[in-house]
Structure formats: structure tokens, C-alpha cells
């Protein structure tokens, strides 16, 4: 019996009849595990589907039923099949390479974000390039453009403060390069991940006020980072809600580094009426604050309570363990990576994800002395 026109159309387009595959057992083409490198043909034969279907599953493309996806993924895992990067590039126009662009003084934060983006890339057989930049360099747009074109990048993940470079974002759009952002300011939010940092900090100030503190200082982050704005705003919100008047002398500049937190704390402790609690805009500066307090022969939290933001590994490794706002930094990197890969596959389908925060109350905060 001759195939019907609809069936011919499906075959010409390379679309499997996945409903039929899901309802009936796979074709018995099981092979012995090959010696040497496993090929896509081996996976297809083992799963009883075409090589095109295997490719669709590996690239997470549509037109494959869930039952077929699960069967192919099980075979891929059992045979430990790994697509060869050059073969994948030859099969289409993608390079299967994305880059993470960064310029951030906190190595702890960057490490967590990088691991998260890497998690997303490895899960979908992409490679990740790390691209350090100087966010305030005059030629940053030209450098990124050269990187994108020379490396044939499929897309980029932007970390703060690069994520708020309007000229760079506009050029990426002109080049048609998908991008995903982490903690971007509102005008630049499109695809990526954010946390309600302002509300989180307000809750932290409420925690300190509940312990009896009224002289609560704030060490600000780098002025180029949107996070510095939000965390200062949260600090002010928290003071207002607690009925505490703002003392401008208690708000000092920092730079998101340990050294800037150390120096800022010394300035605060030299005040005629020093603070009894310090909120630093990230964990690295909070660790610097604890170092400065201890160097003066004082202790935390007996003499001064200290808290931070991020919950990077340093928060748990210093003594006393740091009270901080936990934003799931590794998860944020992973989600930003996943949304970028979705945007690469299906333009306009990447989304902005808001992730929750939690207060991690540890030994670095205590009652007002």
C-alpha cells in the first residue's frame, strides 16, 4: 500500500511518528556495545529510532514524544555516548560554545556563578569559555565583538556590572547574538535571572533591629553594580521600618573586596560613636569587617555584629560563621545558562527567572552589647 501524502510529508521533513513509537516497543536492533568511540548510529540502533531523532533529543528540540526522549536518553547514558564537538558544528551552524563575560572582584561569587553556568552547558553538551574583561574599558564593545566573531560564539552570559553596559547589549542585539544576564538593572532585564535584593536586605536590617541594634552601619558595594543600589535601598527601607533615623556617617564606600571591607570597617570604628552592627553588601567585605574588628582586639558578635550578602563559601569558612542573605548563586548561574541555551534554540523563548532568597542566621550576629 502506498504511503499517504501526510506520511510522505512527515518523512520528507525528518519528523518521527513519535506517538507510534511511544505506543509500540522499539524496533529490535540492539547491538553489542562497540569497541572504541560510540557513534550516533549506535545510539539510534539501540533505541530503535532514526539518527535525526537522536539528534533532536540531544539538542532538546521539539517534535519528539516524551517516551521517545526518555528511551533515547537512557541509551545515551548506558552507552556513555558523547557527541563530538566538530561533528556537531558540521551538522549545523552552531559552534556549541558560549562565553561567560565577567569583571567582578569577588572570586567566591564568580566561582559559584561559573560552576552553575558550567552545569547548564554540560547538561546540554555545550562548551563554556571564560572571558575576563574590564567593564570600564573604552574598547569593551569592540573586544566582545571580536571575541564573538573569532570564536563563533552561539551566545554569552553576562555578569554584573557588564550586564548593565547598554552599548554592549545594543551591539550584541545588532549582531544577533543571544545573551542572558545575571542581576541586571530593570531596563536591561530580558533573559536571565534576578533576586529581590532590596527586600532581602530590609529583612536583614529588621533582624539586627530585633536584636536591639540602633547604630547599624552599611558598607556599600561598587557603584557600577546594580546590586549596590538595591542593597543600599534595602538598608534604608529596613531603617525606616524599624523607626531608626539615618546617620550618613554610618554609610561608607566599599568595593566588594575583602580589603575594601577591612578599610571601611576601620573608618566606622574610628567614629566618635561607632556602630554596634555592620551590614556589608557582600560576604567578602563582611569577612574583611570581621578581620578589622578582631585586629583591634574586639570580638564578633560580642562587641560588633556583622552580616553580609550572597552566602558564598567564605561565609561558612570564616569564624564566626557569617550571618548573610543567601542568594543561590550557583543556581543563578545554572538558570542563566539554561535560559541562554533556550534562547539560542528558540529565539524569543528565553525568559527572566526570579529566584528566592533566605536569611542564613549564624554566629556573627548577636544582641546589642
Itemize the secondary structure elements and their pairings.
Layout (H helix, E strand, L loop, with lengths): L4 H9 L4 H6 L16 H8 L3 H8 L7 H14 L5 H7 L5 E6 L4 H17 L3 E6 L7 H12 L3 E4 L7 H10 L3 E4 L9 E4 L1 H14 L5 E4 L6 H16 L9 E2 L5 H12 L7 E4 L2 H13 L9 E6 L3 H4 L5 E4 L2 H17 L6 E4 L2 E3 L9
Parallel strand pairs: 1-2, 1-3, 3-4, 4-5, 5-11, 6-7, 6-8, 8-9, 9-10
Antiparallel strand pairs: 10-12
Helix pairs in contact: 3-4, 3-5, 7-15, 8-9, 10-11, 12-13
List descriptors.
single chain; 369 residues; alpha/beta; 434 Repressor (Amino-terminal Domain); Rossmann fold; 3 domains; six-stranded parallel β-sheet; six-stranded mixed β-sheet; elongated; disordered N terminus
Task: Please give a structural write-up.
This protein is of the alpha/beta class. It has 3 domains: 5-82, Orthogonal Bundle (434 Repressor (Amino-terminal Domain)), CATH 1.10.260.40; 90-195 and 331-356, Rossmann fold (3-Layer(aba) Sandwich), CATH 3.40.50; 197-328, Response regulator (Rossmann fold). It contains 15 helices and 12 strands. Strands 2-1-3-4-5-11 form a 6-stranded parallel sheet, covered by helices on one side.
Amino acid at each position: 500500500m502506498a504511503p499517504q501524502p501526510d506520511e510522505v510529508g512527515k518523512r520528507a521533513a525528518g519528523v518521527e511518528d513519535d506517538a507510534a513509537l511511544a505506543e509500540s516497543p522499539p524496533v529490535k536492533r540492539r547491538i553489542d556495545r562497540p569497541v572504541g568511540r560510540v557513534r550516533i548510529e549506535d545510539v539510534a540502533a539501540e533505541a530503535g529510532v532514526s539518527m535525526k531523532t537522536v539528534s533532536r533529543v540531544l539538542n532538546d528540540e521539539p517534535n519528539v514524544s516524551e517516551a521517545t526522549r526518555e528511551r533515547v536518553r537512557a541509551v545515551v547514558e548506558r552507552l556513555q555516548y558523547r557527541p563530538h564537538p566538530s561533528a556537531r558544528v558540521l551538522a549545523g551552524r552552531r559552534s556549541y560554545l558560549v562565553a561567560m563575560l565577567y569583571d567582578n572582584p569577588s572570586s567566591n561569587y564568580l566561582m559559584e556563578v561559573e560552576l552553575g553556568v558550567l552545569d547548564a552547558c554540560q547538561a546540554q553538551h555545550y562548551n563554556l569559555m571564560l572571558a575576563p574583561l574590564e567593564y570600564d574599558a573604552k574598547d569593551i564593545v569592540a573586544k566582545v565583538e571580536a571575541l564573538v566573531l573569532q570564536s563563533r560564539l552561539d551566545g554569552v552570559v553576562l555578569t554584573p556590572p557588564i550586564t548593565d553596559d547598554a552599548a554592549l547589549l545594543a551591539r550584541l542585539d545588532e549582531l544577533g547574538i543571544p545573551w542572558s544576564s545575571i542581576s541586571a538593572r530593570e531596563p536591561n532585564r530580558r533573559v536571565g535571572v534576578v533576586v529581590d535584593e532590596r527586600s532581602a536586605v530590609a529583612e536583614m536590617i529588621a533582624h539586627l533591629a530585633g536584636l536591639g541594634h540602633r547604630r547599624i552601619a552599611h558598607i556599600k558595594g561598587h557603584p557600577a553594580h546594580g546590586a549596590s543600589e538595591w542593597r543600599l535601598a534595602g538598608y534604608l527601607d529596613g531603617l525606616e521600618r524599624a523607626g531608626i533615623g539615618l546617620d550618613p556617617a554610618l554609610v561608607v564606600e566599599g568595593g566588594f573586596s575583602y580589603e575594601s571591607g577591612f578599610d571601611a570597617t576601620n573608618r566606622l570604628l574610628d567614629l566618635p560613636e561607632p556602630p554596634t552592627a555592620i551590614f556589608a553588601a557582600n560576604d567578602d567585605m563582611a569577612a574583611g569587617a570581621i578581620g578589622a574588628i578582631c585586629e583591634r582586639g574586639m570580638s564578633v558578635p560580642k562587641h560588633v555584629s556583622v552580616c553580609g550578602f550572597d552566602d558564598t563559601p567564605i561565609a561558612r569558612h570564616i569564624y564566626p560563621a557569617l550571618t548573610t542573605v543567601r542568594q543561590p548563586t550557583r543556581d543563578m548561574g545554572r538558570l542563566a545558562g539554561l535560559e541562554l541555551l533556550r534562547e539560542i534554540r528558540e529565539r524569543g523563548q528565553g525568559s527572566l527567572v526570579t529566584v528566592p532568597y533566605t536569611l542564613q542566621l549564624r554566629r556573627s550576629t548577636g544582641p546589642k552589647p
